[in-house]
């Protein structure tokens, strides 16, 4: 299948932001989008790039009622050499298919999605910001479109990709954030949808996210749903704890998102000879390590968040400052190394980046 392109007219073009420091995250979109439809008789068909614009959907569309949808988040980077690069993008589309599987959505052709992404990014390449830490965020999404309010898998779907220039996800930029462990709400339980990237997981997080904000923290630190003791992940990031020289993160238990940046962090640490462990880690162990001075660093990882240092953890009224509250050397090294790979400025020992122009 060929991805057809209908470029927008000159008068449909929007102004491209000129001040990268004002980009923020997730509010600006380029001139074009990709879309493709699914029907049982035709499978996925009609892949095309069209002017960015509203979708026309029946108010009975199943996605609007039962949330049968999946999405991804990935980025394109413009290097100082002018090159445009994608980072581990096939991994994102493979994960999208695993999410599809969980939500009973027909899988997508990874090669076609890669081709669609490449064409879309290159068509709107002038929108890719060049400042360090800024990039073009790519949001592939699949939604259930049957006009039917019975509970069943939809027969028809719409896949689309929208893209837009972004700066740092957190207003703090690459500065440490505070996280707040929820003792009341849980994100996911094994067997649920926690492993899938689907909107419902994020809708379910909003209440706790607001509670965290009210307490003055950037994000929620989720504990496991059964024992409410073991750390799982943070609102939009996986999470790492450096304790006594060793970096610990939650194993992929089935209830947490298998982050691609998480995997990149683990592989870089192994490459550098820094010991890592994927094991269950309780919030009490973290507080004890903090009190004994053994908790050296805490940082999150994610496509949007890149590597984000954590300065403080709150749990049941207790507050723990991580180290001296400033960005630790390991978080900085990871952030700088990952960025250097993404912008084509450093060695890419794992061949993670593909230059597309
Ligand atoms: C990403 O890191 O790309 C994500 O999808 C997180 C998002 C929900 C902002």
Task: Report what the structure shows.
With 357 residues, the protein is of the alpha+beta class. The chain folds into 2 domains: 4-166, 2-Layer Sandwich (D-amino Acid Aminotransferase, Chain A, domain 1); 177-342, D-amino Acid Aminotransferase, subunit A, domain 2 (D-amino Acid Aminotransferase, Chain A, domain 2), CATH 3.20.10. 23% of the residues lie in helices and 29% in strands. It has helices at 62-66, 89-102, 110-123, 199-203, 206-214, 260-271, 283-292, 329-342; strands at 4-5, 32-39, 43-51, 69-71, 74-78, 84-87, 135-144, 157-166, 177-181, 219-223, 231-234, 238-243, 246-249, 276-278, 295-302, 306-315, 318-321, 353-355. Strands 1, 2, 3, 4, 5, 6, 7, 8 and 18 form a 9-stranded mixed β-sheet that branches. A hairpin with a 3-residue loop joins β2 and β3 (43-51). The radius of gyration is 21 Å and the shape is globular. The protein binds 2-OXO-4-methylpentanoic acid. 2-OXO-4-methylpentanoic acid binds next to loops.
């Amino acid at each position: 299948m060929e991805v057809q392109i209908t470029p927008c007219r000159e008068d449909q073009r929007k102004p491209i932001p000129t001040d990268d420091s004002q980009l923020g995250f997730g509010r600006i979109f380029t001139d074009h989008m990709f879309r493709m439809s699914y029907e049982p008789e035709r499978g996925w068909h009609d892949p095309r790039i069209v002017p960015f614009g509203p979708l026309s959907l029946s108010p009975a569309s199943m996605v609007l009622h039962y949330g049968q949808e999946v999405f991804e988040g990935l980025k394109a980077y413009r290097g100082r050499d002018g090159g445009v690069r994608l980072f581990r993008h096939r991994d994102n589309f493979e994960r999208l298919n695993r999410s599809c599987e969980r939500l009973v959505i027909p899988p997508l052709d990874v090669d076609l999605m890669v081709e669609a992404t490449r064409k879309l990014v290159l068509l709107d390449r002038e929108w890719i910001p060049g400042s360090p830490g800024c990039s073009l965020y790519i949001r592939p999404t699949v939604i259930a479109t049957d006009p039917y309010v019975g509970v069943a898998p939809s027969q028809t779907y719409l896949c689309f990709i929208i893209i837009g220039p972004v700066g740092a996800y957190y207003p703090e930029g690459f500065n440490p954030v505070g996280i707040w462990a929820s003792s009341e709400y849980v994100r996911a339980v094994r067997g649920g949808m926690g492993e899938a990237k689907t909107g419902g997981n994020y809708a379910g997080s909003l209440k706790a996210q607001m509670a965290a904000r009210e307490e003055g923290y950037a994000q929620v630190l989720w504990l496991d749903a059964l024992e409410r003791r073991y750390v799982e992940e943070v609102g939009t990031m996986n999470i790492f704890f450096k304790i006594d020289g060793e970096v610990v993160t939650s194993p992929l238990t089935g209830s947490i998102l298998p982050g691609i940046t998480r995997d990149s962090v683990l592989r870089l640490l192994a490459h550098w000879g820094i010991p890592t462990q994927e094991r269950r880690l309780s919030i009490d162990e973290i507080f004890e390590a903090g009190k004994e001075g053994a908790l050296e660093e805490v940082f999150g990882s994610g496509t949007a968040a890149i590597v984000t240092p954590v300065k403080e953890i709150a749990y049941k009224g207790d507050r723990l400052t991580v180290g001296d509250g400033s960005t630790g050397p390991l978080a900085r090294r990871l952030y700088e190394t990952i960025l250097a790979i993404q912008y084509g400025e450093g060695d890419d020992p794992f061949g993670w980046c593909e230059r597309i122009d």
